[in-house]
Model the fold of this input.
Amino acid sequence: MPSHRLPHQLLQRWMQVRERSLRIAACLSAEDAGAQSMPDASPLKWHLAHTTWFYETFILAEFESGFQAFHPAFRLLFNSYYNGIGEKHPRPQRGLLTRPSLDEVLGYRQDVDRRMQQLFSPPSSESLNTTLTATSISASLDELIELGIQHEQQHQELMLTDIKHLLSCNPMAPAMLASIAAGKNDAITDHCTDTVQTQQWHTFAAELVTIGHAGDGFCFDNEVPRHRQFVEAFQLAPTLVSNGDYLAFIDDGGYQNPVHWLAEGWDWIQQHHIRHPLYWRHGSDWQEYSLYGLRELPLQQAVCHLSYFEASAYASWAGARLPTEAEWEYAAQQEKQHSQEASDNAISQLFDCCWQWTSSSYAPYPGYATAAGAIGEYNGKFMANQYVLRGSSCFTPKDHSRISYRNFFPSTARWQRTGIRLARSVAAAL
Done:
């Protein structure tokens, strides 16, 4: 949905987002930027090229007068999943693209950025496709640029999760960032603020609630239409599950006891010999790999990099469950309304720490309609075999999260910063 910002404000946001991607890339070598650690991840170089491809394909090709592609082969190489655009290079083989080089990809970005900035001129500019009316340019160009900004912010989070997975595969456990004590990179952090654990769960009465995006700001198509859902009375934990909490689950034989696991999840951990969260290491003591390198496991911080199966198993062991996405959004709405009140009993860590698994399958809202053209492939085509996550993580750009945001991943995904917030049905809790 268009944000209707003034052109110079949109230009400033666009430039800031483009520059942040380069600040992330500046932390890495060319060798780091070209490697791919698993099929689900992509090389940083590919992310830099794909986000540029998005602007070239969906904006310049539509609006630039006399458009010519920077390189004809890039249309295929850096297409992610848009079948309406044409053929795609296989995702598991993105790490084999030693050409173009990182320098050539950066040159591609510079060229597209220069041409994009010309489109911020008035509609009468010669840089625009004059076969389009000024009205159509103003509306649809604004909308597509905003979508491109949000798209690149999504990829900035993926850059960090993919880099973290790549570097974790190195026996040297290399650090991408300086230590927390030495100061945080202004573009990146891999650290959640510690929160004092409290025992007071928040109770919500049964209610016909309204969820989905509201207002004039940007949202993705999967956040609408706004609609009503009935939720039974429930309770929500005030904080996320911590590393210390999860360690108790491990010490109690949680990964060896099938009673808490979904059948598919139990088969999955047996097949892959999974016995702890993705980046934990066990020697004389537990350690955790982060972008700061290997460090002692911080017991008070939220546990993260868990699959849906692990989150569900822990919830069962703890005598609780995962919230539905309607419960999570309703609780977040209520917390926002009370945010002006000083309270020691606030629901904390809703945002900026870990994405939180819900028990809700990723499906369209009632009345959802897919947008026309290739842009319509952005979200709708993935509404099968995925679970919804809510909130945001410390890898999420600060202005990219909102209460109605619906993230989604398969039940086995662990390389994202995904954690656990517990819920309970009131009847079971009293």
Q: What stands out?
A: The first strand starts at residue 202 and ends at 204. DSSP finds eleven helices and twelve strands in the chain. The two ends are 43 Å apart (CA to CA).
